[in-house]
Amino acid sequence: MSVVPNELTDQVALVTGASSGIGEATAEALAANGASVALAARREDELAELADRIESDGGDALVIPTDVTDESQVETMVETAHEESGRLDILVNNAGVMLLERVEDADTGDFRQMAEVNLLGLMNATHAALPIMQDQGEGHVVNLSSVAGRKAYAGSSAYNATKFGVNGFTEALRQEVTDNSRIRTTLIEPGAVDTELPDHIPSNDQQEQIQGMMESIAPLTGEDIARSILYAVTQPPHVDVNEILIRPTEQEL
Fold first, then answer.
1. Stated pTM of the model
2. Is 153 part of the annotated catalytic residue set?
3. In a domain, 253, yes or no
4. Exactly one of 111, 159, 164, 169 is catalytic; which is it?
5. Closest-CA residue to 105 (of 152, 151, 156)
């Protein structure tokens, strides 16, 4: 028997890193399926433009400028999203940076930035949102990892470390919330996606390697990843899609 996915009408979703790429596409997909979306990122102008597009299409969007490396801002982000509507049903921890360098050449500030954005920001947002979901008796935490959370690559050590951390955190969280069967967790692990992340790689060699790979295959788009997230969050309450690994058809590793 086929199961019709639940619609997201009357649900509230908070998306970090919503100013571009996967986060932007995810926010639009969730709003198009009926959710009210809270949009979080540092770039307020981009968030405002996204909110205007969502609202012009009949959706509901709230802009919350946030730097996820600042724990107090993360707490305020979650509180604001919750207070606006009295609910928080879906948290999409998407904010991330990919500063690829070999260990011997790396700026340790880049280590810190990736740890704070990719891992600690995600952990702090989840920590702030979880009591709300527990009080509701339901909720869904979606964490963006990467194929780099499964496989280590030379030149990607620190990025690998943060994404392996996201994987471990998400699985442990899943086990912790099984006593409340209506709180779900999903780990999304994309392969090569056409976003602005590679533009910020500090190592020329690593940037050229990534760009060469992207040019040699048909990479995923933010919309591709958004559809996978939408699939997970629209399943019936007793179905928890724990993990989705999604690569371009032509990507080997």
1. 0.93
2. no
3. no
4. 159
5. 156
